Amino acid sequence: MFLRVLFMLLLAMNVGVASWLYFSPKPAQGEVAATDIGIARLELLAERERPGDAASAELTEEPGISNANDQCRSIGPFATQADMRAAMNKLGTRVRRIQSREAHTTQSRGYWVFIPAMGTREQALGVARQLSSRGVRDYYVVTAGDQQNTISLGLFREQANAERRRNEIAALGLSPQMLQRTEDLPVYWVDFAEDPQRPVNWRAQMPDLIDLKEQPVTCF
C-alpha cells in the first residue's frame, strides 16, 4: 500500500515538473553581436576609401586647367601625321598643353594647255591635222569622257612653260586655253599653350623643318 502511494506521488511530481517546463515563458534570445565586445569590426579593403583617390583626381585634372596668362601658338602645316606626332613628342614636355588638328589646303598639280572641245570628232581631227601640218607634234585628241573632242596640248609643272606653250599655239591662229589643276590635301597643325615668360624655341627642336609657319591661336 505504501509503495503504491509513493509511486503515485512521484508520478504526480514528474507530471507537474513537465507541465511547468512546457508552459513556462521562454527567455528572449538576444541577437549575437557580429564581434565580441571590445574588438573592432572587420572592414573590407574595398569598403575603405583610399586617401589618395581624391588627390589623384585633382592631379589628373590640374594640367588641363587653362591659365589666363597662357600664350598659345600654332605651328605647321605638317604634310604627314608622322611629322606632326614627332613635333608633339619634342614639344610635349616643354609646354603646358598641346593638341593637334587637321586642316585642308589646295595644292597645284600643274597647268593644262588645251583647245576646247569641238562639236564633233571630225572637227577635232581637222584641227589636229592643222596642228600637224604646222609642225606641232605634242598634242592629243581626247576620245572619251567629259573632255571628249578636246585637244590636249600638254601638262606643265611651271606656269611660265604653260604660258609659253599657249602663246605658241595662239600664234597659229587658234584659241588655246590654260587651266590650273589643283587637288585638296589634308595638312596638320600643332597648337600649344606656354608660359609667356618662358616661350618655347620650337624651331630649335625642329631645325630640319624650315618651311613651318607660326601663327597665334585662341587658347584652349
Condensed summary:
Residues 105-181 form the SPOR domain. This is Sporulation related protein. With 220 residues, the chain is α+β, with helices and mostly antiparallel strands.
First-last Cα distance: 115 Å
Shape: elongated
What's the architecture of the domain at 107-183 in CATH terms? 2-Layer Sandwich
Which fold name fills CATH's third level, the topology of the domain at 107-183?
Alpha-Beta Plaits
Strand sequence of the main sheet, in spatial order?
3-4-2-5-1-6
* Low confidence ranges: 51-63
What's the average pLDDT? Answer: 83
Order of helices and strands: HHEHEHEEHEHE
Count of helical stretches: 6
Q: Report the strand count.
A: 6
CATH class of the domain at 107-183: Alpha Beta
Q: Which structural class fits the helix and strand makeup?
A: alpha+beta
Q: Which percent range fits the helix content?
A: 25-40%
Fold and architecture overview:
Among the domains are: 70-106 and 184-216, Alpha-Beta Plaits (2-Layer Sandwich), CATH 3.30.70; 107-183, Alpha-Beta Plaits. A six-stranded antiparallel beta sheet has the order 3-4-2-5-1-6, covered by helices on one side. It has six helices and six strands, in the order ααβαβαββαβαβ. The chain has helices at residues 2-23, 52-61, 81-91, 121-133, 159-170, 202-205, and strands spanning 71-78, 97-115, 140-141, 151-156, 177-194, 213-216. It has 220 residues and is of the alpha+beta class.
